[in-house]
Amino acid sequence: MPKSGRRRCRLLYVEEHAENVALLQTLLARRKDLLLLHAADANLGIKLARSRRPEAILIDVDLAGMSALEFMKVLRADPATEATPILALGANATPEAIVKGLEAGFFQYLTKPLQAEPFMEALAFALEFTAVERSEQNPLILRFGHPRTTFKESR
Fold first, then answer.
1. How many CA atoms lie within 13 A of 13 on its CB side?
2. CATH code for 9-154?
3. Which terminus of the chain has a lower count of CB atoms within 10 Å, N or C?
4. pLDDT 10s digits, 96-107
């Protein structure tokens, strides 16, 4: 738990290759505000997404078994996970593959090998999206309005 007392954001990584998980762990080692959850397959990923409600999910599009698209469809059909940003990570770096992934509904499509800066930017955007999305679902905010919005409107 960070010293500020705030809960850490959870990133679920659905990846079957241990070396890729180790690479991501190294990349995120200095991010004390993040908790990395790992699922070695899509079925476990769905269970973790539903039980732990991560703020963002990173999935390898080339998983054996269930495809990343099927995984995303299952989560989009569940009210508890329907808005969770899912970042796709694929070896196919062609513009067509990237567009196809985005059109399918992935929040972002990243290419392998994973590059630190684009990944960290995409992750930051996904976490910000989730923070806003979840704050808007907060019953107090729905009833009284978001403090920033209310302040701006009262000027």
1. 22
2. 3.40.50.2300
3. C
4. 999 999 999 999
